[in-house]
Amino acid sequence: MGNPGRTPVGKRVGRVAALVVLVALTATGCSGDEILRFGWPVGVTPQANDMRWLWTWTVIAALAVGVIVWALIFWTATFHRKKKTAPGEEEELPRQFQYNIPLELFTVVVPTIMVCVLFFFTATTESKVLDKKPNPDVTVDVIAFQWNWEFKYEGDKAKRADGGQVSTVGSSGEIPLLVLPTNKTIEYKLRSTDVIHSFWVPEFHFKRDVMPDPEKNNQDFSFQNSIDREGSFVGRCAELCGTYHSVMNFEVRALSPDKYDQYIQLRTQTNPKTGKPNTASEALTAMNCGELCSPFAVTTKPFNTDRTARTATN
């Protein structure tokens, strides 16, 4: 009589094989690049690519270790169980490996080497991502407040006719656009006027907390990157900051350097119809360069503040 509590080896192997086939069939809907990104969006900065490759190889290393561990578990469970040498005799324990010094050294030394390698590549990638050049091409003050954003451009090129600096402030009716040039070094200086927020653009593969009085908190409140291609990318607050945190979105609009220069020039000029400096939407409308110069956000939409327009879900 066999032990009814035990699953035959054939059934166990069959279940594992079925799981492998299911995973393979599921993965066939993804391209090779999508699989290697492991859920990360396509990066648009060199820094994002560095972080993605660190993530990819870390996951591959973790999966390799997992496969080895799983194989050892199945091997041990299958071939190193108690077993009877003859009918009617007591089950015999399998060979024991305690006090095996070479095995113990292996289980200590190999994980230590793995941790050191992971630390090295993490530290070098972090150094690249946080590296700052002394004279960035564009500097933007990113000011967070409950529950929106202001983007203020520094430098003489961004000085308006009335003496102020070009800036964009979001409202409940309009998503703020952070217009930036491609292939230029951009520095972001982050500051909050109230609580802690977090500046996050998924395609940057990077986020940083936006602190009130960052100097007093000894926070590094700036970072740099460069954007590889034109496009529109949604930005979010990634720190729970109050009632309307979930709708505190903005949009990064990346333009070629010549279009960006045209945009900044238009922002410094006065609109003859309003007698005020051109807003972001007015400047982009005047540029008339297709969807890339859409006057309003295309990746997200404002929150509807009309309470009567919303109904409870069933």
Can you characterise this structure?
- 35% of the residues lie in helices and 18% in strands.
- The protein has 314 residues and is an alpha+beta fold.
- The protein folds into two domains: 40-84 and 91-130, Orthogonal Bundle (Helix Hairpins); 138-302, Cupredoxins -  blue copper proteins (Immunoglobulin-like), CATH 2.60.40.420.
- Strand 6 and strand 7 form a beta hairpin.
- The radius of gyration is 28 Å and the shape is elongated.
- The protein starts with 8 loop residues before the first helix and ends in a 27-residue tail after the last helix.
Fraction of residues in helices? 25-40%
State the CATH class of the largest domain.
Mainly Beta
The major β-sheet equals: 5 strands, mixed
**Count of the domains:** 2
Q: What integer value in Å does the Rg equal?
A: 28 Å
Assembly annotation: single chain
The H-level CATH homologous superfamily of the largest domain, spelled out, is Cupredoxins -  blue copper proteins
How many H/I helices? 6
Quote the CATH topology of the largest domain.
Answer: Immunoglobulin-like
Going by CATH, the architecture of the largest domain would be Sandwich
Number of strands: 10
Strand order of the largest sheet: 3-2-1-5-8
- Shape descriptor reads elongated
Helix and strand run: HHHHEEEEEEEEEEHH
Structural class label: alpha+beta
Strand content: 15-25%
Which spans of ≥5 residues are poorly predicted at pLDDT below 50?
1-6
| N/C terminus separation | 56 Å
Mean pLDDT: 83
Catalytic activity: 4 Fe(II)-[cytochrome c] + O2 + 8 H(+)(in) = 4 Fe(III)-[cytochrome c] + 2 H2O + 4 H(+)(out)
Family: Belongs to the cytochrome c oxidase subunit 2 family.
Transmembrane segments: 56-78, 99-121
Pfam families: COX2 (PF00116)
